[in-house]
Design brief:
Blueprint (H helix, E strand, L loop, with lengths): L3 H7 L4 H22 L12 H14 L18 E4 L2 E5 L12 H14 L7 H5 L2 H14 L3 E5 L2 H12 L5 E5 L4 H10 L2 E5 L4 H11 L6 E6 L11 H10 L3 E5 L14 H5 L8 E5 L9 E5 L1 H10 L1 H4 L6 H16 L2 H19 L12 E7 L1 H13 L2 E2 L2 E2 L9 E6 L6 H18 L1
Parallel strand pairs: 2-11, 4-5, 4-6, 6-7, 7-8
Antiparallel strand pairs: 1-2, 3-9, 8-9, 10-13, 12-13
Helix pairs in contact: 4-14, 6-14, 7-8, 9-10, 15-17, 16-17
Bound molecules: pyridoxal-5'-phosphate.
Family: Belongs to the class-II pyridoxal-phosphate-dependent aminotransferase family.
Protein name: Aminotransferase class I/II-fold pyridoxal phosphate-dependent enzyme
Organism: Zarconia navalis LEGE 11467
Length: 440
């Protein structure tokens, strides 16, 4: 639209100025037309470039012989074995570390809870969803970890996202290990805090960053894991504690893979190093691994837990953990306390696996004593081929490729469980050694 004075003025323009003006108007119109044309990929999911890229990646994996290896139904309980397509295979694909999923006492507890409370608590705990099982579980976790209290959320991933995002904000800094789980990273992004990834397990680099930047921020969170789920290695926890104390920061340890698996009694990475539980501000853990359930927790001070219970969005605006899930986690914890030898057996099996793999010259990465054992392959397609070849020989082990791990760091990842037998492990490593050479 033109206003009056503009069109009056135009009548007196020279022919050259008029041509220039016309050209500018046409250019503006063309731009507007282009603007009006919204590309289809902006409003059609089937044309999303990211989706098309995914389809391409799936097609190249499927072309390697076994069809689509994702979402394959497992037809029974995954412990040392699994059943797929009616075939029993030795299983390394699930983190049922202590064999609690499928344990008769754990299943019986879940069934009793269903009979008494039904399958859902049907409300946020803050309003009407609280059951006696909830406090029982939170007390049991706090006692086990050694903290004043704990809070249980419905998902492990959600626990990290909502807790981190809720406790930290724009004036704060979060430093997280570069190999941190996606849930930690998502929590960092959502918080709006300044975020920096420090090199994996490098507390000296962390110290340096804090030395340079600590005074620019109000609160600082350092987020690490007890056992890293892709490499199976552990942090030097006492060094991290010393650094965080010196710089007056909070320390969060994600124990998804270390609770139940580390320390003589399975109390986690804190027990492994003999640190005081109060030296870590947020002990985070999941119920989906050693505890045969579904959900996550934060264990820490009374003040922290009380604050989260009244204000953390993923807790307040979400349903409480279901009765069977709460009951199975309580029962798994009780079983673990009664039978700590499960942890030792798990480590014996893992040591056997690692030592046999080393004898075969296989690359198990940086963690010889871990219960998560990667076999580093490098090339993505090769890792898929290896996984397929093992599947044909009765072994279920998933591959890990980019973006779950860095480019050229593809691997097979073996989750050990205390229910694996020595014979299963010997057969697996023997077969793996042969198959690696064939695929080469
Ligand atoms: C380190 C870590 N944190 C958090 C989670 C999320 O836990 P969940 O699967 O119980 O939601 C996982 C999942 O594997 C994990 O490995």
């Amino acid at each position: 639209m033109t206003n009056r004075s503009e069109s009056e003025g135009r009548a007196n323009l020279s022919p050259d100025r008029k041509r220039a003006l016309l050209a500018r108007l046409l250019e503006r119109k063309a731009k507007q037309a282009a603007k009006g044309e919204i590309r289809e990929e902006y409003y059609r999911f089937d044309l999303y470039p990211e989706y098309l890229q995914l389809k391409q990646q799936l097609a190249s994996i499927e072309s390697l012989g076994r069809g689509n290896p994702f979402f394959v139904p497992q037809e029974g309980i995954n412990r040392d074995t699994t059943t797929i397509g009616g075939r029993e295979l030795i299983d390394y694909g699930t983190y049922n570390y202590l064999g609690m999923c499928g344990d008769p006492a754990v299943s019986a507890a879940a069934k009793r809870a269903i009979e008494r409370y039904g399958t859902s608590v049907s409300a946020s705990r803050l309003i009407s969803g609280e059951k006696p099982l909830h406090r029982e579980l939170e007390r049991a976790i706090a006692d086990f970890v050694g903290t004043e209290d704990s809070i249980v959320y419905v998902g492990g991933h959600a626990t990290n996202v909502t807790t981190i995002a809720h406790l930290f904000g724009q004036r704060d800094l979060i430093l997280y290990d570069s190999l941190s789980h996606n849930s930690i990273f998502q929590g960092c992004l959502l918080s709006g805090a300044s975020i920096v990834a420090f090199p994996h397990n490098d507390w000296q680099a962390l110290d340096l960053i804090l030395h340079e930047r600590r005074d620019r921020y109000q609160r600082v969170l350092v987020a690490i894991e007890g056992v890293y789920s892709t490499d199976g290695d552990i942090p030097e926890l006492p060094a991290f504690i010393e650094v965080k104390q010196r710089h007056k920061a909070f320390l969060m340890v994600d124990e998804a893979h270390s609770i139940g698996t580390m320390g003589r009694f399975g109390r986690g990475i804190g027990e492994h190093f003999g640190v005081a539980p109060g030296d870590v501000d947020l002990w985070m853990g999941t119920l989906s691994k050693s505890f045969a359930s579904c959900g996550g927790y934060i264990a820490g001070s009374r003040a922290l837990v009380e604050y989260l219970k009244y204000t953390a969005p993923g807790f307040v605006y979400s349903v409480g953990i279901s009765p069977p899930n709460a009951a199975s986690a309580i029962a798994a914890l009780e079983r673990l306390k009664a039978e700590p030898e499960r942890v030792e057996r798990l480590h014996e099996r893992a040591r056997l696996f690692s030592s046999l793999a080393c004898e075969k010259g296989l690359n198990t990465g940086p963690s010889p004593d871990s219960v998560v054992i990667p076999i580093l392959v490098g090339d993505s397609l090769k890792s898929v081929r290896l996984s397929n070849a093992l599947f044909e020989r009765g072994i279920n082990v998933p591959f890990m490729i980019y973006p779950s791990v860095p480019q050229n760091a593809a691997r097979l990842r073996f989750f050990l469980t205390c229910t694996h037998t020595e014979a299963q492990i010997r057969y697996t490593v023997e077969t793996l050694g042969r198959v690696v050479n064939e695929v080469r």
